[in-house]
Amino acid sequence: LIVSATDLGPERRKSTTELTIILQGLDGPVFTQPKYITILKEGEPIGTNVISIEAASPRGSEAPVEYYIVSVRCEEKTVGRLFTIGRQTGIIQTAAILDREQGACLYLVDVYAIEKSTAFPRT
């Protein structure tokens, strides 16, 4: 990938660099469903279970999987920390009380999963 940057000065200087992208773990965990959908009532207390997601290694490995929320969006706008996820369980819970009067929304929660490797322990 080649990236160019041009300044807005009167002399218009330009700089170009080559960026190498290295993909790792192409055979990482796969979610058991392509999409998870649930309904949550307004006013539920913080810590309410919303849904449980699951991913597993495509190689059949029994290595544990960790889950992370990447982003939460409402109608293409990123919103604050409304949900949390159990790193080992994959259970998504409320981190705030949701109020329909503040705007009903279809929340899109992006989650990724990583396979914890015993060969390369994380610290």
Automatic annotation (TrEMBL):
Q: Which controlled-vocabulary keywords does the entry list?
A: Calcium, Membrane, Transmembrane, Transmembrane helix
Cellular-component GO terms for this entry: plasma membrane
- GO biological process: one example: homophilic cell adhesion via plasma membrane adhesion molecules
Coarsely, its chief localization is: membrane
Q: Which Pfam families match?
A: Cadherin (PF00028)
Molecular function terms from GO: calcium ion binding
Say if the entry is tagged with keyword Hydrolase. no
Q: Which domain of life is it from?
A: Eukaryota
Q: Taking every annotated instance into account, which residue ranges of this chain make up the domain Cadherin?
A: 32-121
Localization (cell)? Membrane
User: What Gene3D superfamilies does the entry give?
Assistant: Cadherins
Q: What protein name does the entry list?
A: FAT tumor suppressor-like protein 4
